[in-house]
Amino acid sequence: MKRNYLLSDSIISPLGFGTDANLKAIRSGGSALKFHTNSRFLKDGFYAGLIPEKAIDEHFSDIGAPAMFTKLEKLMILAVQQILDQNPGLEMQDTGLIISTTKGSIDQLGKDEFPEDRLFLWKLAEVIADFFQIKKKPVVVSNACISGALAVKTANDLITAGRFLNAIVVAGDLVSDFVLSGFQSFQAISEKPCRPFSSDRTGISLGEASAAILIGPEAGKNEDRISYIDACTANDANHISGPSRTGEGLYLSISRLLAANNIEPEEIDYLSAHGTATEFNDEMEAIAFNRAGLEKVPVNSFKGYYGHTLGASALIETILTKHSLLENELFTSLNFSEVGVSIPLNIIKENRNKKLSLALKTASGFGGCNLAMLLKKEVYE
Amino acid sequence: MSKNLFIKDSVIIRNGKLLRNGKVVVQNYPDQKLSSFLKEIYKDQELKYPKFFKMDKLSKLGYLASEILFQNIEPDPETALVFSNAASSLETDNAYAETMNDFPSPSVFVYTLPNIMLGEISIRFQLRSENIFLVSEDFDPGLFIDYSKTLFQQEKAREIVCGWVDLHNSDYDVFLCHIGPEGRYDFNEEELKKLYLPTHE
Amino acid sequence: MSDLHTELKKSIIEQLNLEDMEVSEIDNDEPLFGDGLGLDSIDALELIVLLEKDYGIKLSDPQQGKEVFNSINTMADFIEKNRTR
Lengths: 381, 201, 85
Description:
The complex is a heterotrimer. By secondary structure, chain A is α/β, with parallel strands linked by helices. Chain A folds into 2 domains: about 5-215, 3-Layer(aba) Sandwich (Peroxisomal Thiolase, Chain A, domain 1); about 225-380, Peroxisomal Thiolase, Chain A, domain 1 (3-Layer(aba) Sandwich), CATH 3.40.47.10. Chain A has helices at about 20-25, 55-60, 70-85, 120-130, 145-160, 175-185, 250-260, 280-290, 305, 315-325; strands at about 5-15, 15, 35, 45-50, 95-100, 140, 165-175, 205, 210-215, 225-235, 270, 300, 330, 345, 350-355, 360-365, 370-380. In chain A, helix 7 (about 250-260) packs parallel to helix 8. Chain B is α+β, with helices and mostly antiparallel strands. Chain B has a single domain (about 1-195), classed as Thiolase/Chalcone synthase (Peroxisomal Thiolase, Chain A, domain 1), CATH 3.40.47.10. In chain B, about 35% of the residues lie in helices and about 25% in strands. Chain B has helices at about 35-45, 55-70, 90-100, 105-110, 115-125, 140-155, 190-195; strands at about 5-15, 15-20, 25, 80-85, 130-135, 160-170, 170-180, 185. Chain C has 4 helices and no strands. In chain C, helix 1 (about 5-15) packs across helix 4 (about 70-80). Chain C is globular. Chains in contact: A-B, A-C, B-C. At the A-B interface, helix 4, strand 6, helix 5, helix 6 and strand 10 of A face helix 3, helix 5, strand 5 and helix 6 of B. Strand 6 of chain A pairs antiparallel with strand 5 (about 130-135) of chain B, so a sheet runs across the interface.
């Protein structure tokens, strides 16, 4: 079967405008999570990864009029622009655009700064497609917190189905009053920067970001490249918000994926987990990883760097996994203190180099959804 | 492989009518509100699933349509759900935003994602299968076919329910169809379009 | 049965959308979670909102919630002792 590759990418976050800036910040242990006191829903303040709109506008004014676009539209357009800058010869005629978001421009709900239809996710997609004159009708994936990786799977599958020759996947979500108050009503927001898999974890931190990646069959032949192997999703069929106590859906998505591709757990060099730092999520993941025979694989969560960026998180983490593979580099699971899940995992405690070939990315979300994805490095010799 | 796929049964909830394979199953009273129409379907079909009352309207629409689609059959555990709509969860987003002014409601917030409906259907029928929720301005048969085809080709599903479950400003439009290796119609764009918008209506 | 007990049952039925239940069907000492009424984690969060909204009680320790929400009786006792409205 013809493989698709993870090609150029971009991350726009509080850690920087571009993947390189983000990698640099991660290597030096930087975190987007800062203390903020400007929410009426969290009067004692909260930690989150926020991007000031002023900083976005400074970058955006090079390519468009900032006042014409919502904050999220600008973030997503900036991410796509970086992909196009890296690929000046990209044939736009047959390039698909795949959007991943959970809430789109929900910060605009109840305001009249923009026409009302800008709240629709298809309209968000249309605005981005029109900006770049992408002719193919964009596709929107909105499947809670697995969206970012599910959009990569969708890109691969729609290229395989012949709908596109290649596809730009762009993901983004904001920290709005809407999601802040919602997660607060769930008593899920940590008073301190989130600490995935740690014994002293007390919940999530939220973050905002966008990210984009080009997926396609034509990778540079004279360099190492990262191929998309396969991905599986599975529903817990247990509860719409609480993770399954047995990690059923996550376990099934991983075990089906490994079985379908004849891969043994020992072959996996690195595991990029979801790791939101809620009590139940991290425990669920530990159980599922153990059931799948992955408890010894080096694992991290990137939530300590970015917070939970919802529809962007799994794409950002896929991009970082790609760079881990390419650079043979394992990144610290930031803010980890000591194991706080019932099954010990091989949490990455310091940045280090290790020969990497095969990586597993997982994600889970509300609605009981789970996803597992395999990425592999093809070494140029 | 795609030529061996067929549409088995389909369900529509539209304009105050619930139809299964084109035949009216439940019809609303004139000027009946959506919430009471949904409850009427639940009662009329003698469903016994108290979780129904806790769902938001979007999930109720998807759940009820799936009950009618799977009438008298136990769905294959490898039945994937490929769903889509135009308005995502905007109706419930607005309902949640109203609670924000007072006491933000966790039980409303949890429904502010369109794929919660997939969770509800998965729980009801114990489907630990492939799921995706897509958003497009209009019903897009080609997208359902392209995504579903790949699921079958990669042997990730034995059957699929394709669903369009849209709700905005109390306007609703629901179309579910059950796809598998045997059935009544070929699984192609033309047939999907015909079933989604029957011309004789 | 006190007015508070009845009032609580009514608001639980309404707030948690237990549309198929009647006040008379809920026993005062019946467990609200697990085998009793079968409430779940989202219901627990919604009960926390209810305490704050109707009785001015802020509950932030989830562990405390488990004891308070054991039954209508435990809820009513807790409210009598802590209500600010």
